[in-house]
Amino acid sequence: MTQPPDTPAARHERILILDFGSQVTQLIARRLRESGVYCEIWPFNAASEARIRAFAPQGIIFSGGPASVTEGESPRAPDHAFASGLPILGICYGQQTLAHQLGGVVEGGHAREFGRAFIDVTGDCAITQGVWAKGAREQVWMSHGDRITELPPGFRVVASSEGAPFALIADDARHYYGTMFHPEVVHTPHGAQLLRNFTHLVCGCTGDWTMGAFRAEMIARIRAQVGSGRVVCGLSGGVDSSVAAVLIHEAIGDQLTCIYVDHGLMRAGESEQVVSTFRDRFNIKLIHRDASELFLGQLSGVTDPEVKRKTIGRLFIEVFEEEQNKLGGADFLAQGTLYPDVIESVSATGGPSVTIKSHHNVGGLPEGMRMQLVEPLRDLFKDEVRALGRELGIPEAIVGRHPFPGPGLAIRIPGEVTREKADLLRQVDSIFLEEIRNAGLYDAIWQAFAVLLPVRTVGVMGDGRTYDQACALRAVTSTDGMTADVYPFDMSFLSRVSNRIVNEVRGINRVTYDITSKPPGTIEWE
Length: 526
Ligand code: XMP
Fold this sequence. Notes:
The protein is of the alpha/beta class. About 35% of the residues lie in helices and about 20% in strands.
């Protein structure tokens, strides 16, 4: 995936991150991007000398990883990374392999140190400048079993703890640094500043990666790619396809047509908002196809979650193709693909991972569609897409919106999906979201939604007995959807929402709050 010369990478200072399989490697890249430095993540074994030379980074970071340097087959950094003369920062496993490869000693069998730890800063170096003072005790986040017991020549200790005597090491002459802890996670409170010192002070980056610059460069690039061709874009109402559409429209105007396939399983008011935003405000050519009859018809009798997903995915492609054919075809298909979707993954075990759910992204490339792709967001993380969306003037209601799954409310209605159930769920969902917004909690939550439960329960209203449906509320915090924690609402908030739902939504007489984290649960119920 070496970038061609006219990509954003070629126009900006850049850092290379070699991935050794840590769960948090992406966070290194996000911290760097937040400080205005373009960076890419490559598997440690995909960084040939020629490829690194072509990428021409200002510095290299070795990520953490699950292996142990003391095991024979464990991964190593390529020797040419050291021969390049570039500054290097090794984090956790990255520090251990750096030490081992440069002549130090790493030993296993020590007590595992996991989570919050405190280290004593015993010296100073470029990484700690202006952040940690000599003599201070600082909080960090550790996750390791092995540790260095003998430093390689040229290195000295800058910070240590009882469990990790070589918590931060430096070789100032060669600009090599290593941390036993993870500076990229938020539980190392000054971690982002330490990383910034590496990129700015050690590697000489100035922070020239901004969404304003990206916008102008990408518009020129889209024009060069598309020429006078025609582009179609599947809008879903979500952040990614919306930002891609507005950016492409800014580049090529009416050569772009957006197709919004409305499966009838969107949240309350969402379809109207898509039409008013894109057609009326941005003047984008938009086909709004109400295909709810078709989708709900084909979902009739379907209860299996995977069959629901596959049915919706198949119909989406059929309807999209139909609309696209009516247009007389197009030369390009625009997609809101993001950087996390294209990072080459490195597997610690080499084995295949288990499919928990077949996530299909509405707007994905229909198989057999012979069109070139326009993917203007492939270099960006989600937070960067949001920043770009704001730069483009897209309303906050779209740019800051919680993620919403392609199959929509269908996977929040366990059992058979019907229009009546979807209508009921929309009412519950919008009360929950309205209360969350009123309480000022929307941005603190990754995703919040309601689930319509396939059970009826007994209740009492006024003097009468009710026998109606129950619903569940779900709200989680997360950084990437891979893991999630339950949002700890006050009881008074939950009671207010529950009262409103039971009083205002006919057909619901019981409200529950789902307190399962992920893992072991998943965010969606199906
Ligand atoms: P789970 O339920 O697997 O969800 O914990 C993780 C994230 O993915 C979203 N999700 C989907 N997104 N198509 C999508 O585009 C899908 O089929 C799908 N299923 C789950 C979910 O909303 C959460 O953000």
